Known about the structure:
Elements: H1 3-6, H2 10-30, H3 33-47, H4 53-78, H5 83-89, H6 91-107, H7 112-145
Helix pairs in contact: 2-4, 2-7, 3-7, 4-5, 4-6, 5-7, 6-7
Amino acid sequence: MSLIEKFQEPARRERVVDACVALVDVEVEKKKGFGGIVIKTGYGAVKGIKPGFVRKVVDGLFDRWAAKLAPFWDAAEASGKSPVAHLVAERAAVADALLSVTDEKAQRADHAIVASTYKKLRPSAKEHVEEAVPALAELIDRHARS
């Protein structure tokens, strides 16, 4: 069963979306220094738009993110390799794939604060996404196998 097929099951999809939101919270909280302050402030502004906003966005983008991750995941499984190790080894390409989804979404953002915050944070986004790939890969693995 492909990664996309696994995440089409509604209860599993809900669990993985919740886990992704929690991962974003953890990754943002780990940021340090001036860059961390900027990220935390921007994330706080986005979260402040309305309760549940971040979850709604993750839920809305999840299927497209899963579609971007699937070729990496499925290729590793087909070759007998660890999908987690493969995603980590290909973290730069994984980050580019995931960011292509958010770049597209940001261009069509309904909220000006979302668009402006994304534009300010985007130059450093790839580095931050790459840093999160190991935890994301473990999260995906845990939920794909549950």
